[in-house]
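Design a sequence for this backbone.
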């Protein structure tokens, strides 16, 4: 808990820095924070939007929603209560404003969530043969529902449909030269290592999906994981994901406010899953193309709009998790009012 509750400036800066650990599409970290007395503003950073993969900014906004939730978790762990005003001035790039409302008691739950932020990661390797307990799946879905987002767990026959939809989506994207070029920028080895502010293939240093978190061969999974266009260096075994659970995060509407809340729900559900020993892999390929996104909606019987698919499973306790993906330095994502 912070020692000085005068204006919360230190807590706001800490919250913005903590938000930098949030998951994002291809680790683009497409957000920017602005700190003012008593408030923290979240803005979309369009320079890190995937123009080919995500022209509408759906995945960018979901990513920013995860950062928003991370920031609120950090503030709660520092002993601050806050309110959130989403899209406060109608500017589509001004996604949210967090306003401190005063100190509050620090709970064990808040501290645990903040600690879990440092542990959460994406592990694309096959999970074990141990199924996720129903109580854990219920807890994860309940957490998402607190943000107005539903978590629909797929039946075995629906998992086969999801696999088909995801395969067709990736095949279609793979035929697009612009899409392949964009993916090459954000995934792969650090070709630009040693060049200031430049990472692999020209992406900003501290962003992207490095080779050491990409499997060295395609995992034997029912639903195909992301094909990054080149093998990585993450060793995998011969396991399969037959015991994995698959879900679709969805909501009643499909606009920017809904995407932002979907990101908040994803962050909250992922932290809950991590605390329960459950691995989560978000799968966005099927929502990146209009046709396959519509097919996902049919899996929901048309009752909502899909935001992401998820794979959930129990990771192998004998294998260390993959390394964390890199992060932008705080000075590149946080700005302040001029003195």
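Sequence:
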């Amino acid at each position: 808990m912070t020692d000085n509750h005068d204006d919360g400036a230190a807590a706001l800066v800490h919250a913005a820095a903590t938000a930098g650990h949030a998951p994002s599409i291809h680790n683009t970290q497409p957000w920017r924070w602005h700190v003012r007395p008593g408030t923290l503003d979240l803005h979309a950073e369009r320079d890190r939007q995937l123009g080919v993969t995500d022209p509408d900014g759906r995945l960018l906004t979901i990513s920013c929603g995860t950062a928003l939730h991370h920031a609120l978790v950090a503030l709660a762990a520092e002993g601050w209560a806050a309110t959130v005003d989403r899209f406060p001035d109608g500017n589509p790039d001004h996604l949210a404003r967090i306003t401190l409302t005063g100190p509050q008691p620090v709970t064990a739950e808040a501290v645990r969530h903040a600690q879990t932020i440092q542990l959460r990661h994406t592990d694309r390797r096959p999970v074990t043969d141990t199924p996720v307990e129903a109580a854990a799946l219920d807890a994860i879905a309940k957490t998402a529902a607190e943000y107005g987002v539903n978590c629909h767990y797929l039946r075995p026959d629906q998992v086969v449909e999801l696999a088909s939809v995801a395969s067709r989506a990736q095949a279609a994207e793979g035929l697009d030269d612009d899409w392949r070029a964009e993916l090459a920028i954000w995934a792969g080895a650090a070709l630009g290592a040693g060049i200031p502010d430049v990472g692999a293939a020209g992406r900003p240093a501290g962003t992207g999906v490095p080779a050491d978190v990409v499997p060295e061969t395609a995992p034997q999974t029912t639903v195909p994981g992301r094909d990054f266009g080149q093998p990585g260096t993450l060793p995998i075994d011969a396991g399969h994901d037959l015991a994995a659970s698959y879900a679709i995060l969805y909501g009643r509407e499909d606009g920017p406010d809904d995407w932002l809340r979907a990101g908040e729900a994803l962050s909250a559900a992922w932290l809950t899953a991590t605390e329960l020993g459950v691995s989560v892999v978000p799968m966005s390929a099927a929502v990146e193309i209009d046709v396959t996104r519509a097919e996902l909606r049919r899996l929901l019987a048309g009752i909502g709009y899909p935001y992401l698919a998820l794979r959930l499973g129990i990771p192998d306790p004998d294998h260390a998790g993959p390394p964390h993906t890199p992060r932008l330095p705080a000075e590149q994502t946080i700005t302040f009012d001029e003195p």
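Residues 135 and 185 are 40 Å apart (CA to CA).
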